[in-house]
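Sample entry as discussed:
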Amino acid sequence: MEKNVKNNYSEAIKLIKSAILKSRYRAAALANKELLSLYYGIGKYVSENSRNGTWGTGAIETISERLQQELPGLRGFSASNIKKMRIFFEEWSKFYKSRQPITGDLEKESKEIDIQVFIPNRSLITNDLTTEQIKMFFSVGFTHHWEIIAKVKSLKERLFYIERCAIEFWSVENLRYQLKSNLYKKQGKLSNNFNKTISDKDLQQKALLAFKDEYLLDFVNIESPDDEPDERVLESEVVSNIRKFIMSLGKDFSFIGSQYRLVVEEQEYFIDLLFFNRQLQALIAIELKKGAFKPEYLGKMNFYLSALDDLVRLPHENSSIGIILCKTKKDKIVEYSFRDTTKPMGVSTYKVSKKLPSKYKNVLPDAERLKELL
C-alpha cells in the first residue's frame, strides 16, 4: 500500500514538473515574441523618422537619455541598441511585407507589427516560411538575431543559423564562434566513405551533418620553427581548451579522453582523442596530423576503429567513426585512399591562429630589439 502511494506521488511529481517546465518555456517564448515585435516596431518608427531627415543629428541619443529619465532602471534602450532595432527592422523588412498598411502612432504600430502577420516578399525569395520556421524565429533572442543579421546577408543562411540557435540552444558565444568558422558552408562537406560503410541512410545523413570539412581552432596559438605545430603540442592545446574544441565540433559530443589506450596482442596503441556522440550513438576517434593528409593515415585509423568496435563499443552502440584532422588535403588522394576501406571515416582540415594580427604587429618590438632592451 505504502509503495503504491509513493509510486503515485512520484508520477504526480513527474507530471507536475513537466507541466511547469512546459509552461515556463511557453511563457518565455511568448515574452521573446512580444519583445521582438516591440523592437521591430520601434525599429520601423525610428527608421522612418531618422532616415528621411525628420529628426536632427543626435536624435537617437537624446531619445535614449529621455527614456532613461522617464523610466528609471530601463534596460536595453541605449542609443546603440535603438540603432540595432532600426537595423533589425531594415534588414528583415527586405524579406517581409505587411498584409495591410500599418498606420497610427508608435503604440498602435508596435502592437500590430508581428512577424506572424507578415508574409515573405515574393520578389526577393521563392518560398514562404513554414510555421515551424516562424516559431523558431520567435524563440531566438534579440542579441542572437543581431549577431546573425550583422554577419549574414542571405535569407537561407540566416534561417540556418536561427534554426540551429533554436534547436540546439546556442549561447551567443557559441553562435559567434559558428559564424566565425562559417559553419553554414563547412558542415556536411567533409571527404568521407559513409555511403559505403554506413548502411542505414538516416544514420548516414546524421553522420555527414555531424562533421565539418574544416575546423577553426583559433584557440591554438603556436609559433613553430617549421611553420607547423608538433602533433603532441597541438593535442595538448586541444585538450587544454577542450570546451572550445567541443564547441567547434558541434552538439552531442562528449569527451572520453586523450591518448586513449588500446591493448591488442599485448601491444599498446594510443588514439589521440576519443569522443562519444549521442546523436550517432557511436564512439568518435580523432587523429591529429600536422601537414598534409597521407594515405597511410587511413590504414592506422581503420585498425583503431576495428579495435574500438571489438574491445570498447557497447552492444547497443553503432560502429565507431574515425576522423583524420590534418592541416591540408588533396581531394583526389583522399578519394583513392577511401576506395577499399571498410570502416566509416572522414578527413577534415583545421586552421590555427599562429600569427599576431596585423594591427598589433608594430605594437611589440621584434625578437632582436627585445634582446637589446633586456
About this structure: The first helix runs from residue 2 to 50. The mean pLDDT is 79.
